[in-house]
Amino acid sequence: MKKRLAAALLAGVMAVSLAACGSSNDTTPTAGEADSDAEAAGEKQVYRTLYTGEVQTLNYLTTSTSNDYAISANIIDCLVDYDQYGNILPGLAESWESNEDMTEWTFHIRKGTKWVNNKGEEMTDVTANDWVTAARYVNDAAHESDNQYMYDTGAHVHNAQGYYDYTAYLLASDNGAKTTDEDGNTLEPVAEVKPEDIGVTALDDYTLVYTLDQPCPFFTSIVSYTSYMPVAKACLDEYGDGFALDNESLWYNGAYILSTYEPQEEHVLSKNPAYWDKDNVHIDEINATYNADASSVEASMFKDGEIDYASISSDLLDSWLKDDAVKDQVHGSRPDNSFSYFFCFNFEPEFDEEYEPDNWKLAVNNENFRKALMAAMDRVKALTVKEPYTPQTLLNNTVTPPNFASAAGKDYTQFEPLADITAGDSFDEAAANDYAAKAREELSAEGVTFPIKTLLPYNPSSTNWDKECQVLEQQMEGVLGTDFIDIIVQAGPEEGFLSAVRRSGDYAFLKCNWGADFADPETWTEPFTEGNSYNFWDQSEDEETQAIYKDWAAKVDEAGAIYDDDEARYQTYAEAEKMLIDHAIIIPYSIDTNGYVVSNTNPFEGEFAPYGVVVKRYKYMTLHDKSMSMDEFTAALSEWESARTASLAGETADTDSAATEAAE
After folding, report:
1. Do 150 and 282 reside in the same domain of the chain?
2. Model pTM?
3. Which of 42, 64, 232, 477 is positioned for an S-S bond with 146, CB 3.0–4.6 A?
């Protein structure tokens, strides 16, 4: 069946009333309908906030950092857009279709959209060639694009990785003149791949084609990633190596222009007067002021009316909730299901001898030992460190978070292999001690000594991670006994923690995370595939562990080969994920949240997707008179979750939607 997604036929947006942010509005507007008192009165809407972390680069074609995304997402539009429930809408592509096996995707570019400079002056039209230029730029190893992997992850764009490998070889070999690298290692020649060989082509100015090496049913969820953002060749030609060094050396096609860029002073995003969808941009200006002490001063600045957003730290929360002047403005944050946190067991330990890596290696390959730790972990208790009031809302029983993806009207985590796991709780003291007794008997026979030293590192720059580890140490040793396990909590380096600890295997037990790259369960398998730098289970020499790994990898391959039946694909991925949990290869832990905040915007008005950069956009959002209360936020979140479920299930196809509005 040919897959055609015209704008008017996209999934509908539920026009549901949500609690407003304490403004005079009684409902939260649907995308495209938002309004505020200031806007209605013709007043300029200026959103004021603080920031502490400076952007590393404005070059959206190379970055993979959150601070950079906050600007990129607002100044550059993509082929697709999103509504507030995560439905994909037309963006710079008005419509698109794929061939029968989903290896060729054709996008029809919106005519009349403009590139502008930082003064809002029109420079040239947006055309299909801008995506061809971007693909060639990102996949040229000379540009060191951290986000290049998206051309060979999930979607495998034809010859993209080949061109990257070829250009990387040319750099390392000085265009073929050298046969060894600086360390004396042989440089094997790589077959030539030309930029025009990459499977991204413009049939004409408004017809763009991506050719893939294998079917990809979720490709439209990939093209809103930064490495798939367009760039005008004329802009690259004009600025050369100076492209995107500041706000004057790049062009804009998004909702905003970076009109002011003074590092460690101020960033100002101003509404783009030439934006194709400017009627849905309600906030006129976003003013971000640098303050190294933002975390200490932002709460008082919000109270004084100087800024429109502040985080309320745990040490301030009780006092704010007792303060009549502000208690009705504090609320939680929408749970972030774009990231999943889980505890990894290290099957290839590289830590110091004092922590007995050989002893650990024998223990970790024993399934009863791993299950004992899994059952002994009271995750809710540990999560109270981050969320003291409702820690259970962060609990995640699977690797893939709930409400991430659905097929046949059913959430992925509710598919039969995962349904019981999703509804349950792995914490069980009696079971933990049963598993421990079995493990002790089996491991003693192998010469393992007790207690088993378990190195549990944390990053000291991450707030309260040390406290979380201490809770786990006391709680798990309390269940299993200090004669069975000795959890050693240790601070890792503040800088380069991932490289020094996780990627180098310098841990026994570690909280890890993974962020979704696209809208498919496949994205959550990536940390555990061959050659991973998470738990290294593929390197285990233990026969039982290897058998589990091979069965899991085969099931993942089986799932990935199903491209024309989402229900069967999800069912098979769920079977693979169940293997990880049933054998306690990892321990699912939590999703994330931004904690408690006060904010004069309503997050449920803005665009949403549980992957990519879209949640950082201000499009559709308005400025409100006051922040939501706790009760208002809870009610709004509940209604939004229900509306999202219904919308993704297609239950509102006959409702007016942003997709229909865009088509009109």
Report:
1. yes
2. 0.87
3. 64
